[in-house]
Every structure is written in C-alpha cells, then in structure tokens.
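Internal ticket - ligand job 244, magnesium ion:
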Amino acid sequence: MRRRTAAARFEDPPDVNTVIELRQVCRIFDAEPPVRALHDVELSVHRGEHLAIVGPSGSGKSTLLNTLGLLDRPTSGSYWLDGVLTNALGDLERTALRGSRIGFVFQSFHLLPYRTVEENVMLAEAYRASGPSRGRRTRAERAREVLERVGLGHRIGFLPGRLSGGERQRTAIARALMGEPALLLCDEPTGNLDSENTESVLALFDELQAQGITLLVITHDDSVSRRATRRVRIHDGRLGLETT
Ligand code: ADP
Ligand code: MG
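stdout (structure tokens):
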C-alpha cells in the first residue's frame, strides 16, 4: 500500500473511476457528552459498484448516508464525490452537485397519492433549483423513458394506490433517475416490502448496475445485502469488512 502524508492525501483526487471517496471522515454531534457518529471512516466506491452497508440501529448508517448525500457535513476528513472535493463547497454548490449526481431512495416511497405515476416522477424536477440542461426532450418524455427503464411503462396513468409495493418503490426509483444520477443512495429500500416485491426491486438494481449506475444500499436484510457486489459493516461509527 502506498503511504502518503496526511496533507497530500487530502489534496490528491481519487482516480476517475471512483464515485465516492471518504478519507478519515469523522462526524461528531454536539451533545452532552458529544456523540462520535462516524469515526475515521475510509470508503472508496467505484463506478458501477453495488455496495451494501449493514449495521445495527444507532451504528451511524443514517449519518453516513446523510454525509454521502451532501445533506450533512463531516466534522473532519475529506469527501470526494465524482472527482469533486465537497468540503469547501458552499450550500448552493452542494445542492447543485447533489441534484446532478445523486438520486435518493428511501424505505417509504413518498409518492403523492392523488398524482399519477407519471406525475409523481415528473415532480422530481419541480423542486430542482438548477441543473444541467437536459436537451430538448420534455419532462413528460423523460418521465416516460425512466418509467420504461424501471419496467413501469404500462403503469404511467395509475394512481400509486393501485400499484403493488414493488411497483411503488420502482416508481420512486424512476423519480430518482430523472436527474440522471451517477449514484443511487438507498436507505432500507425494501424495508416495507414482502419477499416477492423485494425481489422485483433487487432485479431492477441488477439492471441499473448493468447500465453503469453506482448503488449504495443500506439494509438490515441479508437477502438484500447478499445481492450486492461488496458488503461493508458499520459498528459504533467504524467501517469494517463484512465477513459473512
Ligand atoms: P443508524 O442510522 O445506524 O441507526 P444514526 O446515524 O442515526 O444511526 O446515529 C448514529 C449515532 O449518532 C447514534 O448514537 C445517534 O443517537 C447519534 N445521533 C444521530 N443524529 C444525531 C444528532 N442530530 N444529534 C446528536 N446525536 C445524534
Ligand atoms: Mg438510521
């Protein structure tokens, strides 16, 4: 292993195939006493990788996801996202970077019940402050395209209440794909699904990975983490290799 000084390490960009790189990341919450939620976390995720992060409640999973999603800042250490050192960015730049690189998928699907599948997906952009130009295709055309990609081309006019759980989560994934993200950050994406619907989401993850999307999935479910190409365990804010 190559050794570098701490200062050089902080400055050296990772190679172009690295989507995420955390170096010595700590997150300490001001509390009495202070809580060290992330402890010297080192993590590299390569383009096209499907990484699972597993760990017990309170181990730092949400803090890690918030950090990776640029919703929270490390107390110390550096975070490179797609070649950009995020530490020095201001809030507007972080928002723009998040919008152009990251899609979020959560346990609850957060679909609007009185909007169709297509409208729910289009609404991904109603709140987007800015972003790269997406050419001349309309929002509706792009919504249909991502819905085809997740296998829901036949459901565009449905209300969420008429969908299965797996179809609802795939709608939420389509919405996350509207920004053409390099990276999908997923927090317990199958937590509300039975095994059949879980399988339909996992099959979609396989397809997205084959299309070059990088997936980072937080999960408690062994059947979900087993499908990843790599597993990492977090415990008391420290990352370690998953051995099972
Ligand atoms: P997980 O998602 O794995 O359950 P979290 O990342 O939510 O874990 O929390 C990690 C640790 O940080 C826990 O001890 C939690 O109580 C603490 N923590 C999380 N957020 C805050 C906060 N805003 N203020 C103080 N402590 C926090
Ligand atoms: Mg959590």
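Auto-summary: The chain has a mean pLDDT of 91. The domain at 12-243 is CATH 3.40.50.300 (Rossmann fold).
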